[in-house]
Design brief:
3 helices; alpha+beta; globular; 8-stranded antiparallel beta sheet; 283 residues; binds zinc ion; Glucose Permease (Domain IIA); Immunoglobulin-like; 2 domains
Length: 283
Amino acid sequence: MNKNRQIFSYFLLPITCFLLVLTLGFATPAPALELYGNFKQGGLVIGHEDPGFEAFLDNIPLKVGPDGRFVFGFGREAGPVVTLRIVYADGKVSEQTFDIEARVYDIERIDGLPPKTVIIPEEEKIRREKETAMVRTARAGSSNDLDWAEGFIFPAEGRISGVYGSQRILNGEPRWPHFGLDIAAPVGTPVMAPAGGVVRLAEEDFLLEGGIIIIDHGFGVTSTLMHLSSVEVTTGQRVERGEVIAGLGATGRVSGPHVDWRINWGPVRLDPALALDMDALEF
Ligand SMILES: [Zn+2]
């Protein structure tokens, strides 16, 4: 062994290794990705990573805030898996696949009913189409507000009288599942904004929903509150979490006074009960 090789082995090699480890250590971003929420059907998930990256959920680009926060959610039948891809500014890619927990929904079968009556009377169809379009437009907004990241509260005090995902099968015919969280209370009980945002729809008298308010919490996340007895806000108005915006009622198609609260991520219908329950996820 010549002298140079000896020096390399005894002295330079350990230093080279040390520097290499140091360099790699700094070049690889620390695993700073944080996720909060529920990887369950109906679940809402909030993510954060140091700014300077792009995020994709099953190849769909997610909107990322200037502070590195982003949000996504899962529908009633989502799953069985979903892939979250983070592409860093230096070109590094982190890809993680998550199982979406399947849920068992309340299914109620009622047979022997008289033949079904028409749900929407013919003369109301044009009105109904217009209302449905207004709801769709209100939920399609995607402001840059970060109110969705501040957490949600119950919009009213009362008894839970209906849950997300439940479905009735009448005379063997499955009906549209229920996507809201129903809170029953006396007419006039204050209804609060479950999170801050901008009012995108405020109407007193929709055919099925009665009094309805849709709040845009930013990044495609909206709350819908229905069957209101009074609507105390107007379209375009900013509201804060906990602010009284309406009175609870029994307007529209209902069997009793309650507020039906829905959360959407764009067109995806989420479970408000899961949005109220947002612990940090551990992997
Ligand atoms: Zn309901």
